[in-house]
Design goal:
Chain B: Residues 236-377 form the Acyl-CoA dehydrogenase/oxidase C-terminal domain. The complex is a heterodimer of chains A (84) and B (386). Chain A is 45% helix and 0% strand. With 84 residues, chain A is mainly alpha-helical. The radius of gyration of chain A is 12 Å and the shape is globular. Classes of the chains: A mainly alpha (84), B alpha+beta (386). The A-B interface holds A 15-19, 29, 35-37, 39-45, 47-48, 56-57, 59-61, 64 and B 107, 109, 227-228, 230-232, 234-235, 237-239, 242, 310-313, 315-316, 375, 382, 385-386.
């Protein structure tokens, strides 16, 4: 189990879609399995796991395309968190 | 109570509703004795709507500074169960108001929250949820109502159908197609171009004041859009429906509990061949299944509520499962409740006849049970491929 933000995000996505081979730079939207239900779960996961609230202006598709992008979002919202 | 819906004044069941016990007292005093009359008249009377406000029932999960009590979701589910036990029409009004209030609180800008939440929390302003259309029900992606951006804001055109509380609501949460996605818009009822057409004589939840709402060149300011635009706009709908589904799951459990209480009482009193119905094994089988399913549904609803309170993403699937189980169990046992009551269960004014009709509606709203099965099975498929 990963301890970094990026790793935890990847674990969550892989846990939900184990058949998909995903790395940190892969566009999960381009893979075609992200629907609004999973998007909501993803946002809830990020907010719960990293104890942040994602403001509306950050709820942009580019912030959620890849584990890298989500990790970057977390680092902006919680600068004190280790997000390596 | 008369057919006009007058609720007699009483000291019992007064005061704020803060938990299951106070909700039960409120419902037993102010709702249960009159629910069949509401059903026949096709309306929940204004006096009861005011009592609901006085009890702090409209949106108790809102923060105290927004007209709520900061109530947790587990308790909210218990309260919606109790209201559903008494009257599914009233619970339906609570459900859609809950959806609107939560959505404004969750996704609204500070200005939008400032404008709406306190009035929604107090019940001074009642909300309704506009998603379904004449040609799009569970198929939310098929909606054709449009929101066209203008320099000054938005213009909405389209028709929404089966809007619970639409005859009575003061503000509509309207989902419409924007040039890039589906957006959520707050539309006050008195906006020019909004027209409300009552829908009466439905199969169930007959007092929930359904309406068809048409929007003709309805001009709105830029602050009408609620939540993000673009791809994440779909999350507003997902989150709103999730809470609605939770309330319907709790309400379905309420119907099931009402069927159980009515059937157990009737079976103890009614004799056949000199013996109470309750002594017949086939009746005992029906009652025991009601007890078991009610307990199971209650656990599922509570689990979904606990996950919501913890902010866990697993609440979404837990809520799908709870709603699917509770609504199908309610429909099944409402049918059995009518069976136990025999002809008396089919008579005018029979509560179990109302439960039977209302329970069928629960299998359709907030995502039909077919959609629920597709979603739940999809999750199972993913999990088994791990």
């Amino acid at each position: 189990m990963s301890t970094t933000a990026k790793g935890q995000i990847l674990d969550f996505i892989r846990g939900r879609y184990p058949q998909a081979e995903i790395d940190e730079s892969q566009d999960i939207f381009a893979l075609g399995f992200v629907n609004s239900l999973f998007a909501m779960e993803l946002v809830m996961f990020v907010e719960k796991t990293f104890e942040v609230t994602i403001p509306n202006e950050e709820l942009r598709i580019d912030n959620f395309r890849t584990a890298d992008a989500m990790s970057g979002l977390v680092s902006r919202l919680a600068p004190d968190l280790a997000v390596a | 109570m008369t057919l006009t819906g007058t609720v007699p004044a009483t000291a019992a069941g007064t005061g704020p509703v803060t938990d299951r016990r106070s909700a039960r007292a409120f419902v037993d005093t102010h709702v249960v004795p009159y629910a069949d009359a509401y059903d026949r008249s096709g309306r929940v009377p204004e006096e009861l709507l005011r009592r609901v406000a006085e009890a702090g029932l409209w949106a108790p999960f809102l923060p105290p500074d927004s007209g709520g009590a900061g109530m947790d979701m587990v308790t909210l589910g218990e309260i919606h169960e109790e209201v559903g036990r008494g009257c599914s029409s009233l619970r339906s009004l609570l459900t859609v108001h809950t959806m609107v209030s939560w959505t404004v609180q969750r996704w609204g800008t500070p200005e939008q929250r400032e404008r709406w939440t306190a009035a929604l929390g107090r019940g001074d302003t009642l909300g309704a949820f506009c998603l379904s259309e004449p040609g799009a029900g569970s198929d939310a992606a098929g909606i054709t109502t449009t929101a066209t951006p203008t320099g000054a804001g938005w213009v909405i055109n389209g028709v929404k159908k089966w809007t619970t509380g639409g005859q009575r609501a003061d503000v509509f949460l309207v989902f419409a197609r924007t040039p890039t996605s589906i957006g959520a818009f707050l539309v006050p009822k008195d906006t020019p171009g909004v027209e409300v057409l009552p829908i009466d004589d439905m199969l169930g939840t007959r007092a929930s004041m359904l309406a068809e709402i048409s929007f003709t060149d309805v001009a709105l300011g830029p602050d009408a859009l609620l939540g993000p635009s673009g791809f994440t706009a779909g999350m507003v709908l997902t989150g709103t429906l999730d809470l609605g589904r939770y309330s319907v799951a709790a309400g379905s459990l309420g119907i099931l509990q009402a069927c159980l209480e009515a059937s157990a009482s009737y079976a103890a009193r009614r004799e056949v061949g000199g013996r109470p119905l309750a002594e017949l094994p086939l009746i005992q089988a029906k009652l025991s299944d009601m007890v078991t399913d009610a307990r199971a549904a209650r656990l599922l609803v509570a689990q979904a509520g606990r996950l919501k309170d913890a902010g866990e993403s697993a609440t979404i699937m837990a809520t799908w499962v709870a709603k699917y189980f509770a609504s199908t169990a309610a429909a099944r046992h409402a049918s059995e409740a009518v069976q136990i009551h025999g002809a008396n269960g089919c008579a005018p004014g029979s509560p179990v006849a109302r439960f039977y009709r209302d329970a069928k509606v629960m299998e359709i709203i907030e995502g039909s049970n077919e959609v629920q099965r597709i979603t739940i099975a999809g999750q199972a498929e993913r999990e088994t491929t791990r």
